[in-house]
Amino acid sequence: MFDPKKRRQHMREPILETEPASIRRIRKSQNNKLTAMLQVRNERGRYLEEVLHNLSDFVDEIVIVDDASTDGTPDICRSYPKVVRLEVLEQPLFAQEWRLRNVLWQAAVSTSPDWLLSVDADELYGTQAKQAMRELINQEHADWVAFRFYDMWGGRTHYREDELWKLHQRHTASLVRYIPEYPYFYPQQNHHVPRLPLSCMVLPGINTELKVQHLGWAGSLEDRVRKYLRYKRIDPDGQWGSLEHYESILDPEPRLVPWKEEQ
């Protein structure tokens, strides 16, 4: 279980800023509704079912936007009782990721959430993160929470760590309090769009040491090559990301570190 006495091991105290009373009134320390939001596309046979099962353990509701899947992915989503809204797009927006993020955000906030957890269809929250979630949202001093994300590589026993692959060495904000009428916006990028609106980050937040597994690179070499080709097709000039990073996907001998969930 998450031990509040060990809070300093998991969290950095937020920097509080002066803010309007209207925002302060929205914060509450109990009975907060936690809503997960996902954008999905052709996830059958990958990690979606495991992710939805994982989320169902600790969130109250799930909102999903399906980006014009052709493999029956919406049927998987409908089979989970906590999925309260599923929006299926007729035309894909994958090549305009900022528009897709906006559609998902609007769908999620329409369900009147207190907190939103932005999850990709290949991410699993660890046991300690799940156990800590209610404490993280039932407080009045912080409006976003960041976690440590690990790029699992070629399976689930190791994650990648080298000069170009060090996501876990920084914090990634994925949990945010929803404040009605606050100005939320995403940058107009076609690729590598932040999972939360940029304007969230001017509010006070918490960095934790709680872990999330990213399984996007955990599959076969063929899977990684397909992702590499997709990245190069969407962003051939490196406008949205690093070309060096894209090329490193094909590294035949990456540096891998054994995975341990415990802190």
Number of strands: 11
Structural category: alpha/beta
The average pLDDT value, as a whole number, equals: 90
What is the CATH architecture annotation? Alpha-Beta Complex
- The low-confidence parts are 1-9, 13-18
CATH fold field value = Spore Coat Polysaccharide Biosynthesis Protein SpsA, Chain A
Q: What can you tell me about this protein's structure?
A:
This is Glycosyltransferase involved in cell wall biosynthesis. InterPro entries: Glyco_trans_2-like, Nucleotide-diphossugar_trans. The protein has 263 residues and is α/β, with parallel strands linked by helices. It has a single domain, classed as Spore Coat Polysaccharide Biosynthesis Protein SpsA, Chain A (Alpha-Beta Complex). The protein is 26% helix and 22% strand. It contains eight helices and eleven strands. Strands 1, 2, 3, 4, 5, 6, 7, 9 and 10 form a nine-stranded mixed sheet that branches. Strands 8-11 form a two-stranded antiparallel ribbon. Helix 4 links the parallel strand 3 and strand 4. The radius of gyration is 18 Å and the shape is globular. The N terminus is likely disordered.
Compact description:
The protein is α/β, with parallel strands linked by helices.
List keywords for this structure.
Nucleotide-diphossugar_trans, 263 residues, Spore Coat Polysaccharide Biosynthesis Protein SpsA, Chain A, nine-stranded mixed sheet, 8 helices, alpha/beta, Glycosyltransferase involved in cell wall biosynthesis, two-stranded antiparallel sheet, Glyco_trans_2-like
